[in-house]
Write a structure and sequence with these properties.
Bound molecules: glutamic acid
Strand content: 5-15%
Helix content: 25-40%
Number of strands: 12
Order of helices and strands: HHEHHEHEHEHEHEEEHHHEHEEEH
Strand order of the largest sheet: 2-8-7-6-5-3-4
Largest sheet: 7 strands, mixed
Shape: globular
Number of helices: 13
Structural class: alpha/beta
Distance between the termini: 47 Å
Length: 376
């Protein structure tokens, strides 16, 4: 039987595929160190677990408001000046939030400008919405504002901004975001801001969310997540901050796709917002230390730009490619020879690189770099 043309052009998630692959190799007895999937290597905080268990014990196991628990929406709204619960939608991770955003704003043929390298799901989500991703190169991992300006045409519907960036860890300065904001106003475009890593900015660098630019809030959809910030990846709780009409449209879709996000997981998320932030700040400091350690090791092997946020390095491995080999071949060879899993740059739209997640236990990081050095 024929499948839809829409689904035939969609590729599986190139990051998520590492979860079963690594598991399979481990079951085969291989000693695998996964620096592939981006996930904090720490426990979900105790207050979140306790609130989730309380919610289960309290039979908070039924449907809830499709837009999200009212108290969770209200608590999130308080974190964004000028925002009310009507501007917040709760989704199954920021992945589904982004899916809903593109569904809400794209008509067939609409173009969304995506700076590359970029996270693996943007292109497929845009295509699923009938849109066309228009990839624009970055310059040393920062936005190339001229290239973005040149890519804008009458079909352009939105510009996607992902800061801190996955896979490069780049954090965009306020002045660049202001220029993007002016472009969006001038050409009447939406701005989609994937801010899943907003908490993970290092060296006390000041972080600007597009939400800080008040005059574009009427065209801005911010997506954020509890996954990384609170080590709650499996809870699948993410959210959007967007104009009320856009939020209502995304929630309308959500009501047909999944209904509410798991009710007791939302109670866990509510507790996360209330928890003492000391633990989270300590965890971020630990990640900064690992960033430094990983950067020292990796930049001794490959050219690499120092990431300012998120938890990835994106080194240029092109000098180590065999003739005709792509980053996919390199990553497969490294995995086969050393048991170290990294994600090929081509999966993020930039060959000649690999993504290395440094959010891993320190001894695993060191062992992985020793193995890599051995094979290089
Ligand atoms: N976003 C994380 C990553 O890039 C998790 C996997 C995914 O959702 O793509 O590794």
């Amino acid at each position: 039987m024929r499948l839809s043309k829409r689904i035939e052009v969609i590729e599986g998630s190139k990051t998520a595929r590492f979860i079963p692959l690594v598991e399979k190799l481990r079951q085969e007895g291989r000693s695998v160190i996964s620096l592939a999937i981006g996930e904090p290597p720490v426990d979900t905080p105790e207050p979140v677990i306790a609130a989730t268990i309380d919610a289960l014990n309290g039979q908070k196991t039924r449907y809830s408001d499709m837009a999200g628990l009212p108290q969770l929406r209200a608590a999130l709204a308080r974190e964004f000046p000028g925002c009310g619960p009507e501007n917040i939608g709760i989704f199954n991770g920021s992945k589904q939030a982004l899916y809903a955003a593109f569904q809400a704003i794209c008509d067939p043929g609409d173009e969304v400008i995506v700076p590359v390298p970029c996270w693996v799901s943007f292109s497929e989500q845009i295509k699923l919405a009938g849109g066309r991703p228009v990839f624009v190169p970055t310059a040393d991992h920062q936005l190339d504002l001229d290239a973005i300006q040149r890519a804008i045409n009458t079909k352009t519907r939105a510009i996607l901004v992902n800061s801190p960036n996955n896979p490069t860890g780049a954090v965009y300065p306020r002045q660049d975001l202001e220029k993007i904001a002016r472009m969006a106003q001038k050409h009447d475009l939406f701005l989609v801001a994937d801010e899943a890593y907003h908490f993970f900015v290092y060296d006390e660098l000041s972080y600007t969310s597009l939400y800080a630019l008040a005059d574009v809030r009427d065209r801005l959809i911010v997506t954020r997540s509890f996954s990384k910030h609170y080590a709650m990846t499996g809870f699948r709780v993410g959210y959007t901050v967007a104009p009320a009409a856009v939020t209502a449209a995304m929630v309308r879709l959500h009501g047909h796709v999944t209904g509410n996000v798991c009710t007791f997981a939302q109670h866990g998320a509510l507790a996360a917002l209330d928890m003492d932030t000391d633990l989270l700040i300590r965890r971020r400091a630990d990640l900064q230390r690992k960033r430094d350690l990983a950067f020292d090791q990796v930049s001794a092997m490959f050219p690499c730009i120092r990431p300012q946020g998120a938890f990835y390095l994106f080194p240029d491995i092109s000098d180590h490619l065999h003739r005709g080999e792509t980053s996919g071949g390199f990553a497969a060879r490294i995995l086969e020879k050393t048991g170290v899993a990294v994600v090929p740059g081509e999966d993020f739209g930039l060959d000649g690189h690999v993504r290395i997640c440094f959010a891993a236990p320190e001894e695993q990081l060191m062992e992985a770099f020793n193995r890599l050095r051995g094979v290089l």
